């Protein structure tokens, strides 16, 4: 049953396109179109605790968002190798990770491929982010995220501040304005 659900979820992502908005997510995004960050910004889930769902780190060991955050602000990016907007923004997330004062970055692949393929993909793109992988897409399901890329900012208290759907230059002015909210 679980395999059928995962297959259906994966098929839905493929057929809907990784950057199209659907349902309640697009309505929430449209409501925030006047906020800094533009139409991709969604604050409807602000205050929700980060889920403790497990996934794999770059070494194939179990980890979770709370373990990565360690009481600090955390920027979580859900992406996939087959998602062009996801791949486009990965270098900007990598550059952001090197900036002083930036939140911790967890770019978590939703690929079902073997972990070594995700590591090789990041290496080929010269992206130095850790190769986190949620191959069963449990995290994206727990977050209610149906669109990639989706990026969520959590405060040091482990509560969601906002989420951004679609690609963004995470080194640009728009992102800098949004990231000022990291606390």
From TrEMBL:
Gene3D superfamilies: Glutaredoxin. It is found in: Cell envelope. Residues 27-56 are annotated as: Disordered. InterPro entries: Redoxin, Thioredoxin-like_sf, Thioredoxin_CS, Thioredoxin_domain, Thioredoxin_ResA/DsbE_sf. It holds the Pfam family Redoxin. Residues 44-183 form the Thioredoxin domain. Keywords: Cytochrome c-type biogenesis, Redox-active center, Signal. The keyword Signal applies. This is TlpA disulfide reductase family protein.
């Amino acid at each position: 049953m679980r395999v059928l659900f995962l297959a259906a979820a994966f098929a839905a992502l493929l057929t809907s396109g990784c950057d199209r908005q659907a349902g309640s997510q697009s309505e929430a995004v449209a409501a925030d179109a006047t906020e800094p960050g533009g139409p991709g910004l969604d604050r409807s889930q602000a205050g929700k605790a980060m889920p403790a769902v497990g996934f794999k780190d770059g070494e194939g060991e179990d980890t979770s968002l709370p373990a990565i955050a360690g009481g600090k602000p955390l920027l979580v990016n859900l992406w996939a190798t087959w998602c062009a907007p996801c791949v486009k923004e990965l270098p900007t997330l990598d550059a952001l990770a090197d900036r002083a004062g930036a939140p911790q970055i967890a770019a978590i692949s939703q690929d079902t491929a073997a972990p070594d393929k995700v590591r090789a993909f990041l290496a080929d793109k010269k992206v130095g982010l850790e190769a986190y992988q949620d191959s069963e897409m449990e995290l994206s399901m727990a977050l209610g995220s149906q669109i990639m890329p989706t990026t969520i900012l959590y405060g040091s208290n482990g509560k969601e501040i906002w989420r951004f759907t679609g690609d963004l230059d995470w080194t640009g002015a728009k992102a800098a304005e949004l990231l000022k909210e990291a606390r």
